[in-house]
Amino acid sequence: AQSVTQLGSHVSVSEGALVLLRCNYSSSVPPYLFWYVQYPNQGLQLLLKYTSAATLVKGINGFEAEFKKSETSFHLTKPSAHMSDAAEYFCAVSKMDSNYQLIWGAGTKLIIKP
Amino acid sequence: DTEVTQTPKHLVMGMTNKKSLKCEQHMGHRAMYWYKQKAKKPPELMFVYSYEKLSINESVPSRFSPECPNSSLLNLHLHALQPEDSALYLCASSRVGTDTQYFGPGTRLTVL
């Protein structure tokens, strides 16, 4: 069965520092992978997605993620954190037996220290 | 335009009330979804509509009744809810056969 693991329920970084949010997946075939962001009291916004084209995917708000098949990882990074990046981040993988369902990681809360 | 709208933004209801949540999108998507999200948790899929027909019901209690009156609208009718049903209810849409779902802002539901 497919699964998604996000390492760290909370990640705290200083403003201006590198942001690294970790996501590992288990899948027998290369899946489609997504990062969503959820700001407080809001819905989920698509940050970026991997769909077997380029392994380095650029998203909105300066975020990017690299698909590494050998490590079954899809970590999210941003070179310089901004206070406005404080939010909950979810990694998700598509269920290969259904085009409709996403398997979600537990989420990582990103905290930005001034 | 990648906007999904949801109304109302907040809803407080008693356990005997009947209310409805509304979702609308104008992206031409023919797949629409209802999710329930509890605090600090990922969203849980409730229902999926494809071409206005219910295709997935994730064993949701019958007190939740979805409806898709046309390709742009999705409703969730609520009746006799329990306090544990209090959550953020999210609507999403996508093209059929793709995984990229676009979410609305959600309705914060409180059941007293």
What does this entry look like structurally?
Helix content of chain A is 0%, strand content 54%. Chain A is mainly β and 114 residues long. In chain A, strands 2, 4, 5, 9, 10 and 11 form a 6-stranded mixed β-sheet that branches. A 5-stranded antiparallel β-sheet of chain A has the order 1-3-8-7-6, with no helix packed on it. Chain A is globular and about 45 Å long. Helix content of chain B is 0%, strand content 57%. In chain B, the strands form 2 sheets. In chain B, strands 2, 4, 5, 6, 9, 10 and 11 form a 7-stranded mixed β-sheet that branches. At the A-B interface, strand 5 and strand 9 of A face strand 5 and strand 10 of B.
Short structural summary:
The complex is a heterodimer of chains A (114) and B (112). Chain A has 114 residues and is mostly beta strands.
SSE blueprint:
The complex is a heterodimer of chains A (114) and B (112).
Chain A lengths: L2 E5 L2 E5 L4 E8 L6 E6 L5 E7 L5 E3 L5 E5 L4 E6 L8 E8 L7 E3 L3 E6 L1
Parallel strand pairs in A: 2-11
Antiparallel strand pairs in A: 1-3, 3-8, 4-5, 4-9, 6-7, 7-8, 9-10, 9-11
Chain B lengths: L3 E4 L2 E4 L4 E8 L5 E7 L6 E7 L2 E5 L6 E7 L2 E7 L7 E8 L7 E2 L3 E5 L1
Parallel strand pairs in B: 2-11
Antiparallel strand pairs in B: 1-3, 3-8, 4-5, 4-9, 5-6, 7-8, 9-10, 9-11
- Helix percentage of chain B: under 10%
Low confidence ranges of chain A: none
Distance between the termini of chain A: 41 Å
Largest interface by Cβ-Cβ < 8 Å? A-B, 23 and 27 residues
* Largest sheet properties of chain B: 7 strands, mixed
Biggest sheet architecture of chain A: 6 strands, mixed
- Give me the number of helical elements of chain B: 0
What is the subunit arrangement here?
Answer: heterodimer
Shape of chain B: globular
User: Structural class, from helix and strand content of chain A?
Assistant: mainly beta
| Unreliable segments of 5+ consecutive residues of chain B | none
The mean pLDDT of chain A is 91
Order of helix and strand elements from N to C terminus of chain B: EEEEEEEEEEE
The Rg value of chain B, from CA coordinates, equals 13 Å
